[in-house]
Design goal:
The structure is a single chain. This protein is of the alpha/beta class. The protein has a single domain, classed as Rossmann fold, CATH 3.40.50. Helix content is about 40%, strand content about 15%. The protein has twelve helices and eight strands. Strands 1-2-4-3-5-6-7-8 form an eight-stranded mixed β-sheet, sandwiched between helices.
Length: about 280
């Protein structure tokens, strides 16, 4: 009667030699790893609907990026450094080096998709495949206006006011409420200075994304997008059409930006099926 029960073995570590905190869910019968990367303002807790299903097949590594979740303890060290996508990607490499993980599948959401793509650019041998949910590949006119407004008011308005505004623009519909609330509640845990440092990353985002759109990596890549993602889906469709060797697109109906939370059953089945083929 217990054949289908998975015992979650959790190891949570805040290692002060590392800039970010991590949590491990081991699968004793698998040598494959799946590493989950959240977006700006989130934390590893956004993957709570993925852990059990993925751990049935893989070892699972959850990360809290700089200043997020349990990585706040390392914030003093991180604040001394300028935030760049390269630096944030290297934070992840330091963790998998520390854990002696030679390579992993990577699953990211929103800005986490940019971090994963940057890591793959720098260390392609460490990335078995990429699952990019709510992927950002181009800032359309509306999103660029949002970024400019944010830059203008980031020192004036409380960051949570800005974050709520962004959440409503990106996820405006009634059925997006769960995603909006999750993002806003996670953002409440950030410090104002930390939010500003992450927001300053937008200054370098356009050239980074332009390069990602142009260059196809020889790494299997699945984009998981929502049907109503008017800000980011059009550019993803264009890239998938160009990157025919490596990229696939799966679109989820009736879903907000945080696809893994709003449609976890479809997300888990689709992604696990894709990873098992790699």
């Amino acid at each position: 009667m217990f054949n289908n029960v998975v015992v979650l073995k959790t190891v949570h570590l805040t290692n002060f030699k590392l800039l970010i905190s991590y949590t491990i869910y081991k699968n004793e019968t698998s040598t494959e790893w799946v590493t989950f990367v959240h977006g700006a303002g989130g934390s590893s807790s956004i993957w709570f609907k993925q852990i059990r299903d993925f751990q049935k097949h893989f070892n699972v590594l959850l990360l809290d990026l700089r200043g997020h979740g349990n990585s706040k303890d390392q914030l003093k060290s991180a604040l001394k450094q300028k935030y760049t996508f390269r630096a944030i990607a290297e934070d992840i490499v330091e963790v998998i080096d520390f854990l002696k993980i030679e390579s992993s599948h990577f699953v990211g959401i929103s800005l986490g998709s940019i971090v994963i793509r940057q890591l793959a650019e720098m260390h392609p041998e460490r990335v078995k495949s990429m699952i990019l949910g709510g992927a950002i590949l181009k800032m359309n006119f509306r999103s660029q206006v949002l970024m400019r407004l944010g830059n203008m008011f980031k020192y004036v308005l409380p960051y949570l006011v800005l974050y709520k505004f962004f959440a409503f623009v990106i996820m405006p519909k009634k059925n997006h409420k769960q995603s909006r609330l999750l993002f806003i509640n996670e953002a409440k845990k950030l410090y104002q200075k930390e939010f500003i440092k992450w927001f300053k990353l937008t200054a370098e985002i356009n050239p980074v994304l332009r390069w990602f759109r142009q260059k196809e990596l020889n790494i299997p890549t699945l984009y998981v997008m929502r049907e109503e993602d008017y800000m980011f889906l059009p550019s993803v469709k264009q890239v998938v059409a160009k990157h025919v060797k490596s990229a696939e697109l799966f679109i989820i109906q009736n879903c907000g930006h945080v696809v893994n939370v709003e449609q976890p059953v479809i997300f888990n089945e689709t992604v696990i099926g894709y990873l098992k083929k790699q």
